[in-house]
Amino acid sequence: MTDFASQGKTRVNNVVHLNDTTSHQGYYTALSQSATAAGTLILQAFNPSIISDKKCSGALHQEFRDLELLDDITRLQFEGKLPASVVGDTRQTLVHAFRQHKSDSYVPQHVHSAIRWNKKQP
């Protein structure tokens, strides 16, 4: 399935063809339709530099940052350690409240070095 054909569908078994996909967004669209990593089959080789170079957009960096922070929020909530002050009706307000609680420079420990952020590389 191409990135275009996969939009709006979640699949238990997701067969993807990334060879003609030329952007981070295309890879994300195709791969995010998978219900699990085990159910994902990538056909043929693909160009890893599309997802591993440092040229991704600021919006994509923001997406990675928000997803990592939301993952940390979910973990803390599950463990009963999320402060009552961290609330929000939307993703944006929840992440904002969490960053106010922790700090704007907070990075969860488990974040991979390829997507870590700091003041020089926000």
What do you see in this structure?
Strand 1, helix 2 and strand 2 (40-43) form a beta-alpha-beta unit. This protein is globular. Helix 4 (58-78) packs across helix 5. A two-stranded parallel sheet has the order 1-2. 40% of the residues lie in helices and 7% in strands. It folds into two domains: 3-52, no CATH class; 58-115, no CATH class. It has helices spanning 3-6, 24-31, 49-52, 58-78, 91-102; strands spanning 14-17, 40-43. The protein has 122 residues and is mainly alpha-helical.
Q: What is the percentage of strand-forming residues?
A: 5-15%
Count of separate structural domains: 2
Q: State mean pLDDT (0 to 100 scale).
A: 86
Envelope shape? globular
- Residue stretches low in confidence (pLDDT < 50, at least 5 long) are none
Sheet with most strands: strand arrangement: 1-2
Q: Which sequence of SSEs, written as H and E, runs from N to C?
A: HEHEHHH
What class would the helix/strand composition place it in? mainly alpha
- First CA to last CA: what distance? 34 Å
Instruction: Let me know the largest β-sheet.
Output: 2 strands, parallel
Number of strands: 2
Number of helices: 5
Kindly state the percentage of residues in helix: 40-55%
Helices and strands in order, then pairings?
Elements: H1 3-6, E1 14-17, H2 24-31, E2 40-43, H3 49-52, H4 58-78, H5 91-102
Parallel strand pairs: 1-2
Short description:
It is built from 5 helices and 2 strands; from the N terminus they run H-E-H-E-H-H-H. The chain has 122 residues and is mainly alpha-helical. Strands 1-2 form a two-stranded parallel ribbon.
